[in-house]
């Protein structure tokens, strides 16, 4: 009997080879590669004839290799280069810290002794540097309106007063009430709040950064209450605030949420009226507000009242203009961010606040007004102020309020958008501007005589 030859096995191999060839022609070269990279199947299975580079990216498809959706969409496979690798993840763009960009700031003189420095990139930084010793300039707050319940944009405030430059300043309530220290031409527009830091400017141009305390002493002709302690001026009533004086900067009247005691004193220092819930504020005068059993409840119409204000520290006796914010950033050349001490939450320092405004003074009395926009923290702002040479610095209102205007043009990122209206700004003037609003109540304005006898 003859032995059988392995014809069947050879024929089977030929058939399989033909089938594979037809399949390859039908799918195309890209899908042949797809077969070659299927797990468990190597290029050797195709007799070494398919030498294809691994794909870099798949165009017009995000389907898995060899999936039906890829076949249906006809995705194109592009060979990768040395610069790109398969499955490589895109690296997140690293935003530089603002304090590391001080050397990249570009400066431009906008007035003798006043320089505007900028940086544009992933961060936007603006710095106004004012030589308070040699420059013929005046720096003072600008109010949105004469009364404290109005708001307007920093650009409008700067343009109306023809300021060289301006930035937003105090925190404020939605109704326009400025929060914290605000002094204009020696007059207390608003008193300190929460022991927060303030920045004051003296008549000679020296800049002070301190936590300021204010209280008033009212001396009366009524023997029952010859001397009354006044806690604050033009600030919202809150727990522990006690006796508050309100001037026309607060508004035309004062309303209390509960029955208390209100005493109106006219411009001549004479008690004009008393009430319990609502009282009109006399022009040039003020209204004292407190609880029912307060010492002012003994005052009657016709009584004489003389109110004077005292501040601490003593270096603030000659301050003529001031704004406030918080928290403190630098104290005597050292980083000093005290959130808890100024009643700020920890979130105040986070990166979710992408715009901040700061102010400070250098050792040689240069005023620094700074805005930072982009991802950064409150500590980054403090370090930036330190790199700029600040000896003392504070944070001002920020977020949507952050705005800087230079020569009538908004230089912050909100230049082409609707700017948030604010209660006041801090502006730099080439010369002392004319005061457009009338001077209010001389009894609540700072004077060296009234502050001479600080207890």
Shape: elongated
Q: Provide mean pLDDT, rounded.
A: 82
Main structural class: mainly beta
Percent helix? 10-25%
How many β-strands, per DSSP?
Answer: 32
Poorly predicted sequence stretches spanning 5 or more consecutive residues: 1-7, 28-78, 80-84, 434-455
Instruction: Give the count of helical stretches.
Output: 5
The main sheet comes to: 8 strands, antiparallel
Spatial gap, N to C terminus = 134 Å
Over all CA atoms, what is the radius of gyration? Answer: 36 Å
Q: Approximately what portion of the residues adopt beta-strand conformation?
A: 25-35%
Count of structural domains: 3
Give the spatial strand order of the biggest sheet: 3-4-5-28-27-29-25-26
Please give a structural write-up.
The chain is mainly beta and 455 residues long. It folds into three domains: 9-79, no CATH class; 98-183 and 190-210 and 314-440, no CATH class; 215-312, Jelly Rolls. It is 11% helix and 34% strand. It has five helices and 32 strands. It has helices at residues 7-27, 29-36, 68-73, 154-160, 378-387; strands spanning 55-59, 76-79, 106-111, 114-120, 124-131, 138-143, 165-168, 171-172, 178-179, 182-184, 187-190, 197-202, 207-211, 213-220, 227-230, 232-233, 244-246, 253-255, 261-265, 271-275, 278-280, 286-290, 305-312, 319-324, 328-331, 334-335, 355-362, 366-373, 390-395, 404-406, 409-410, 424-429. The strands form nine sheets. It has an eight-stranded antiparallel beta sheet, covered by helices on one side. A five-stranded antiparallel beta sheet has the order 6-32-7-30-31, with helices on one face. The protein has a five-stranded mixed beta sheet with strand order 16-17-22-19-20, with no helix packed on it. A hairpin with a 5-residue loop joins strand 8 (171-172) and strand 9 (178-179). The longest helix is centred in the first third of the chain and has 21 residues, at 7-27. The protein is elongated, with a radius of gyration of 36 Å. The termini are far apart. The model is unreliable at 1-7, 28-78, 80-84 and 434-455 (pLDDT under 50).
């Amino acid at each position: 009997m003859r032995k059988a030859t392995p014809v069947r096995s050879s024929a089977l191999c030929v058939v399989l080879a033909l089938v594979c060839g037809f399949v390859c022609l039908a799918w195309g070269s890209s899908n042949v590669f797809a077969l070659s990279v299927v797990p468990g199947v190597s290029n050797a299975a195709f007799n070494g004839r398919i030498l294809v580079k691994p794909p870099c990216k798949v165009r017009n498809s995000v389907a898995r290799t060899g999936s039906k959706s890829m076949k249906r969409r006809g995705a194109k496979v592009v060979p990768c280069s040395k610069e790109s690798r398969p499955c490589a993840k895109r690296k997140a763009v690293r935003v530089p810290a603002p304090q590391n960009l001080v050397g990249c700031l570009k400066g431009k003189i906008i007035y003798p002794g006043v320089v505007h420095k900028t940086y544009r990139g992933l961060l936007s930084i603006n710095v106004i540097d004012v030589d308070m010793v040699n420059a013929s300039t005046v720096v003072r707050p600008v109010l949105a309106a004469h009364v404290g319940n109005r708001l307007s944009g920093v650009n409008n405030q700067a343009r109306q007063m023809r300021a060289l430059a301006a930035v937003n300043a105090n925190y404020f309530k939605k109704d326009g009430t400025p929060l914290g220290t605000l002094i204009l031409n020696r007059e207390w527009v608003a008193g300190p709040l929460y022991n927060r830091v303030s920045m004051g400017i003296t008549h000679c141009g020296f800049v002070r950064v301190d936590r300021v305390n204010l209280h008033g002493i009212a001396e009366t002709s009524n023997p029952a209450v010859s001397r009354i302690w006044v806690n604050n001026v033009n600030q919202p009533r809150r727990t522990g605030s006690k006796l508050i004086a309100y001037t026309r900067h607060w508004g035309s009247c004062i309303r209390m949420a509960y029955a208390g005691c209100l005493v109106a004193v006219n411009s001549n220092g004479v008690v004009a009226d008393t009430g319990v819930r609502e009282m009109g504020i006399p022009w040039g005068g003020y209204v004292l507000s407190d609880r029912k059993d307060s010492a002012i409840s003994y005052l009657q119409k016709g009584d004489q009242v003389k109110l004077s204000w005292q501040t601490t520290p003593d270096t603030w006796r000659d301050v003529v203009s001031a704004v406030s914010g918080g928290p403190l950033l630098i104290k005597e050349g050292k980083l000093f961010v005290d959130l808890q001490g100024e009643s700020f939450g920890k979130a105040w320092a986070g990166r979710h606040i992408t715009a901040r405004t700061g102010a400070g003074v250098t050792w040689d009395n240069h005023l620094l007004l700074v805005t930072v926009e982009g991802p950064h923290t409150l500590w980054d702002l403090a370090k930036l102020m330190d790199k700029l040479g600040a000896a003392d610095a504070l944070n001002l209102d920020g977020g949507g309020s952050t705005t800087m205007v230079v020569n009538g043009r908004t230089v912050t990122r909100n230049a082409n958008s609707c700017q948030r209206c604010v209660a006041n700004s801090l502006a730099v003037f080439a010369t002392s501007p004319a005061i457009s609003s009338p001077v209010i109540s001389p009894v609540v304005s700072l004077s060296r005589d009234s502050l001479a006898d600080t207890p």
